[in-house]
Structures
1.
Amino acid sequence: MTSTPFGHGGYGNSYGGGYGSAAQRNQYLADSVLSAPPARLLTMLYDRLLLDLGRAETAQQSANWPVASENLLHGQAIIAELISSLKTDAWDGADGLLGLYNYAFTALVNANIQRDPALTREAIELLEPLRQAWHEAAAAVPAAQPAAAAPATGRPFAAAGAWASPAGSTGGSLGFG
């Protein structure tokens, strides 16, 4: 079997670890999050959010409720992070975006409780244009800008609260580490 960057095509890591070990993958993901500039972190959140919602919708349609629930809960955690990092006093549109996030969050809670893929689809259709817009905005930011300096809290990005793991920890709650 062939080897892939994140696994060994079924052979596992029994022959000495290789570059595809889970620990190395997790370290790479943690490093990529911790070193990413704020615009990239936001697009990473949106990408993972829409990935989770797509997985949840597929699981709901096949009545795989545990997988659907896991992905919906993860999506809710990402939206909660987006809400907590939104500075409503920083720009005029923030209150509207906050309302949209709250609506999507409630839709995902109800999609999980009611096992309703239509609610998951509604959230996807609401959030996908935002994901695209954030990607376009991030691409417009000059590449020469350095990443934001770490605040006094020691966290490299204030909105990365659910990603930032305590020292010695082996992973973030949003699945990036």
2.
Amino acid sequence: MKETEPDFWVLEYVTITKDPRTDLVVAIGGTEKAADILQRTGGFLSAPGPRGDYHRLPHGLPVEQQRRKATAASHALLAAGHSVHLDPTLNMLVAPDGELEAALRYLAGLAERASAAKTSSAVAEVLTEVAASVHGLLPLTREVIVRAWTAASDLQGSTPGERPDPIARLGGTASSLSEAARVILRARNHAARTTQPPATTPPPGRAQSPVSRRR
């Protein structure tokens, strides 16, 4: 009996995620039934895309509203029998403490890797995690500081030249983090190029002479 490939309901699959370029929450995939659920339960809007229609939440929604609507829509889709991938950053049911614990475990793991490093390349790998240009710890921390600096200035209604000293210093802190990342990357590059020292040879006094070896 010849076996045939099963029919997969690929079109039933829906991905709900946040586009990093526009910060819009978009839903891709699904059928007309899924589109109806997205519109009714999540407030998604239909929009034309280069590969067909997709759905997105309206512009300008606060982050918490984005998460609430995306979570509600994903659970409604699951209840209706659709397969759904919901971006973890949009899932309201994920406990914030879990994310904090994961971050602390990651930092503790980096410290342990640095302590246990036996080669320069292992040290370079740890320093890369700290200062990598896009996803390094220092550049990401700098981004947080810059956004907090901007928000604090806007909330106080101050212009760049009139910012209170504690707020103004945040800008200098962001610059210091950038410089620190550059210093660490230079050290990382040096460590990555460093060759490991050759194996040590026994002291000259203990080496056998050719004559003694012949005996």
3.
Amino acid sequence: MVETAKRNDRNGVRPADASQSGIDAPVDLDQAVIVALGCNDKGAWSSCREALEAAVARFRSEGVDVLARSSWWSSLAWPDPQDPPFLNGVALVRTDHDPHALMAALGRIEDAFGRQRSVRNAPRTLDLDLVAYGRLSGDLEGLILPHPRAAERKFVMGPLAEILPDWRHPHGGRAADLAATAAVGRDAHPV
């Protein structure tokens, strides 16, 4: 039986409780690797939901194990709400990849799903962002961690708060609190 009442000595946060997050083992929140997923162009799939489900299924082939994931959240496109609405979610993952290798793996999955990089914030078949890699913080040779805008986005922090409400952003704030105060995507909601 997993003991979920033990405190992590380094951060004072209880490991995730399986009854709250769907995670069947304690999670060291200081080591959490978090990936955000988004889609607002179904591409070859019948829906964005189907595309995102297929993307999650593809993670394993890239050496990324999904430990838990949120429900899917809907929100208007940002910054242009005239674009198709987004479906978003987050996944807690485990991998032997370092942050750069993980980003490369996520990029390969995006490419396999037809991701086109035209103009910034254009509709996309799949958007995978590395939100956090443990407590790493700063510019790691061009990779900025934690994701520089994740904390201000409800469509990231809301799903994250579903599975890891006590996760702390390396620059401050619990996921649950950041979700409540996020200024971008305030219309985001689980579907």
4.
Amino acid sequence: MYKTFLCITLFISFSTASQKSLRINDTAPNFKFWLTDGSKLTNNDTKEKVVVFKFWFTSCMPCLTDIPKLNRLVKEFDKRDDILFIAPALDRKPAIEKLLKIRPFNFRIAYSAMDVSQKFNKKQVYPSYFVINKKGKISYIDSGTKQSEFKDLRKAVIKALKM
């Protein structure tokens, strides 16, 4: 009986620890994405760059309605080579490509990214935004709590670029 209780207690403890949400100044989790353009992207490819992530999926209405605002944000920083805009999607590549034909999205799009989404976005709220600074630390998080305030996201990008 005692061993069973101990095993259950340890299991719950480890499960809870593994579900810890990310916070500002945490090191970004390791990731590996396959992009719709056929390339792959890992943490090593983002060193010394600011990375803006938007986690999303194609049937999420709030995820789709913010695309024009995000496209304007990408355009604002398009002359810079020290920033990457990445949109990891939960969907498979064909579904994303079909959507992009009618709704262009200027982020680099990753597909089938549920494993990485679970590392960043523990609550699985969509859309969710994360800014990673040039040192690989999380400098901004919006997991559905701010209703996608793009002023805040833009300010976080500018601040991360100055670091």
